[in-house]
Specification:
Blueprint (H helix, E strand, L loop, with lengths): L1 E10 L2 E11 L4 E5 L6 H8 L7 E6 L10 H4 E4 L11 H11 L5 H9 L15 H13 L5 E5 L7 H16 L3 E5 L3 H7 L2 E6 L2 E7 H8 L3 E5 L3 H10 L3 E5 L2 E5 L3 H11 L5 E5 L3 H9 L13
Parallel strand pairs: 3-7, 3-8, 5-6, 6-7
Antiparallel strand pairs: 1-2, 1-4, 8-9, 10-12, 10-13, 11-12
Helix pairs in contact: 3-4, 4-5, 8-11, 9-10
């Protein structure tokens, strides 16, 4: 478990993290979301003791990172996949980390196999692609078989197979009872990966809870209806004081479920060609709830 309480970080006159409190529970994959400049990387660095908080604290299983007796066996992290010696092979890179942390050498080949790098274990990391470096960074995070894992943009550079693999890996780790905390800008991937969310903006907490609840709170749930008798259906919906709008030859109906709409259509003599609930997306919810916290606004695309 990771517990942040009143976490604050200033760099001179810049307030990067502002009285931030959240909890990352074990046995769940928790996504860490926020616009650029929101303070995500700074927060992760404070979790790992790389930056000292100006105020507040963050604990890992009840202890500060510096109090952990065997840090790599408790916490594994991928913050920068580029942190490796280019002249060392993947195996040697992991071996020196294992040796300095009293981790059995056999564990090196275990994690190389797990991340799919056994075939290039003897190759120098300086010649690795971005995707291979990501896999090596993940191998480092897993090396100590830790209870807590932090991943910052873990799918960066991975191909579709690799993205699916890291998603399944994070779910498997959480199912084992581990704490998995992952930051990413790929919202479509986070929608499939994260069970819980911590969302911040301008260093402050915007939301903490389940991904499902975040989407439900921020997005409108509608039902898409197509019928050759749309006029009759419009009349029935209007008489019911239902809210609806037209889109691509269909009606998007709000605040009525599929059963209610189906009964209205039947009573109105309207044949239905489509009656499908439209679930909100994580991207739409994120844009809606973090719009005021965006530091860098882009211009409108002119077509």
């Amino acid at each position: 478990m990771i517990e942040a309480t009143g976490l604050t970080k200033r760099y001179g006159s810049t307030l990067a993290v502002d009285d931030l409190s959240f909890t990352v529970n074990a046995g769940r994959v928790t996504g860490f979301l926020g616009p650029n400049g929101a303070g995500k990387s700074t927060t992760m660095r404070m979790v790992l003791g790389l930056d000292r908080p100006t105020a507040g604290r963050v604990l890992i299983d009840g202890k500060h990172y510096r109090q952990l007796r065997d840090p790599l066996r408790t916490v594994g992290a991928l913050l920068d996949a580029g942190l490796r010696h280019p002249g060392r092979s993947a195996r040697d890179h992991l071996r020196w980390i294992a040796a300095t942390n009293k981790i059995p050498r056999a564990r090196v080949d275990e994690v190389l196999h797990l991340v799919g790098l056994s075939g290039v274990a003897k190759k120098k990391a300086g010649g690795f692609s971005l995707g291979m470096l990501q896999r090596l960074g993940i191998a480092v995070a897993l090396l100590g078989d830790p209870r807590v894992l932090l991943f910052d943009e873990p799918v960066n550079g991975l191909d579709p197979e690799g993205i699916r693999w890291i998603r399944e890996l994070m779910h498997a780790l959480a199912d084992e009872g581990r704490t998995v905390f992952v930051s990413s800008h790929l919202l479509s991937e986070m929608a499939q990966t994260a069970q819980d969310l911590v969302v911040i903006g301008k260093g402050q907490l915007i939301y903490q809870g389940t991904t499902e609840d975040f989407i439900a709170r921020a997005t409108e749930h509608t039902v898409r209806v197509r019928s050759p008798q749309l006029d009759a259906l419009r009349t029935a919906l209007t008489e019911r004081d239902a809210e609806f709008r037209e889109e691509d030859g269909a009606l998007l109906v709000s605040h009525l479920d599929s059963d209610e709409i189906g009964e209205l259509a039947f009573a109105a003599g309207a044949t239905l060609h489509e009656l499908s609930p439209q679930r909100g997306s994580l991207e739409a919810a994120f844009m809606q709830l973090t719009g005021d916290a965006v530091e860098f606004h882009t211009g409108e695309v002119v077509r």
